[in-house]
């Protein structure tokens, strides 16, 4: 069986040499002439699927850029990983970030400023954005973020159920209501039509609803210097009482998490849904007869909780000029193609797209574009923002209101104490 | 004869060097640096930090979230350890038999243990779901009211404990089974000849001979339960209203999501001390008993 010839045995040196050679080769590949753009984002839902399509188009049009996109789990996991990578100086070239998280992300140490002249060379100017949106991206005179969109809290409505409830106008759109009485009447009519609930809401995280209502009451949160909690108890309780009333009247479920909220609107148990606009793709895919509108002005002024997705350059210890240029061009390209992004529900921040016919033709996505100037951002603090500690504290305190485990009064007291504790904690950024 | 002795000693060190290097880099260094950081306001964001002295430690004792999350960890440990030991023993006694039934029992008792935490929690979140979950289906079929297990403050921890028992009891079961199979058959034979019945054999032979294994399992289980994080993070995220948030989650939140590495290090050290005390106390009790037996 065995032959007399010695089997081929590579020497140790030959193996080592080969390995080293292979390493050097791959090293050369990575350092090749193509500029590199690695992007981290947090879009895991319907908007994430849309992002992938847009990225496919970007890659097809830019064979000269080595582009890689990674989607990470939304919220704390995403921001934790991004912070770690930026703290170590080995971050990706570009990442998405909620506008409300920008100041709490320690921009001076964990982000690199965006070279405005590169952005202008790529055809994007300050005048292309709403001033209020742009101004929030500038910290200490430097631009740290480029806004991609705005995503307000809106009203979803089921066309068949609302027709049955007599809430649609002749144009087949929901008739706008203002004031608490009209708001409650509308909800009661929907409840009669569904026989179950009027609205599907996420009772485990009532922040967006509460912040919208509190904003409409013109409530203040922090003193102008950001050092004191100046929450208006009467207004805060007014909003919480309304949330409690909706649940106790059976207009909303007593307990429903995010997926239950989506399910209850999808299956017609609720004829309305209060949520951010990003589930539009989900309901379109489900072939649900629905449309969208601004959230009703229940109280005094139009304010709608919301946020913006932005692009940021996380801190790199050794930033490469070619990569940065390609990255800024990528950001500009994404803004100019944000009508496809808008199809996922978000209102583009780039005004040339907002004014385009292509965007105006998007239904129902263009129906609530009027709220853009009235988007009500989360309070300004290092512990505040999308998915950050302040929202978590509100969820912990307020989620018991709908279930009846907590009264609005006790919930508010708990939330205020928790916020005060955060305020007393020395800022780590 | 100093030469060979010296050679032997350092030669040994050479062989353990790869391990020692990694151990020092990933274990000793973080432990030391964590202790060092606990005296500073070190931030993950990389802003300048200052020496705080004992400020973090003072804050920790006045922070109700530390104590409530520590309490949740201890409650979880107290609720999960007894069933994880007793049920494992019962299962081992049942499965310690030959033939297809023994094989089937061994297989099904151990199977959940090989699942990753994500899969286990996904399954159980659906099982506990109000409206269409299995548990609430059984409750309503039996004429009881539905319970929103994971969203009710005094039910959520129980729900997590049940999930944990289902998931991890297989490991303790395996330890017990191995110990049972190590008891010589002659002992039972002799007992049977002397007229001992099954109950007497169990209480006079099997259980005493398993006592060392029981001690080991209790220690391992206490330490494992104290380290609870995955299931709770994935099932309730510490909610509702922090009713299930374990101390490790609070450390994670302070250190990583809030960037306060210094403060998180101080809490870690408090927790580290508790684990060491529990483990040492258990080992003391257990080894004392072992010598007496």
Name of the CATH first level of the largest domain in chain A:
Alpha Beta
Question: Oligomer, anyone?
Answer: heterodimer
Distance from N terminus to C terminus of chain A (CA atoms, Å) equals: 72 Å
- Averaged pLDDT of chain B, please? 90
Going by CATH, the architecture of chain B would be Orthogonal Bundle
What are the segments of chain A in which pLDDT stays under 50 over at least 5 consecutive residues?
A: 1-7, 22-30
CATH topology of the largest domain in chain A: D-Maltodextrin-Binding Protein, domain 2
CATH fold topology of chain B: MetI-like fold
Structural class of chain B: mainly alpha
- Tell how many strands the DSSP assignment of chain B holds: 0
* Global geometry of chain B: globular
Structural class based on helices, strands and sheet pairing of chain A? alpha/beta
Number of helices of chain B: 13
Biggest interface, chains and residues, is: A-B, 31 and 22 residues
**How do the helices and strands follow one another from N- to C-terminus of chain B?**
HHHHHHHHHHHHH
Largest sheet of chain A: 7 strands, mixed
- Number of separate helices of chain A: 18
* Main beta sheet strand tally, sense and closure of chain B: none
What form of chain A results from the Cα inertia axes?
Answer: globular
Family (chain B): Belongs to the binding-protein-dependent transport system permease family.
Membrane topology (chain B): Multi-pass membrane protein
InterPro entries (chain B): ABC_transporter_permease, MetI-like, MetI-like_sf
Pfam family, one (chain B): BPD_transp_1
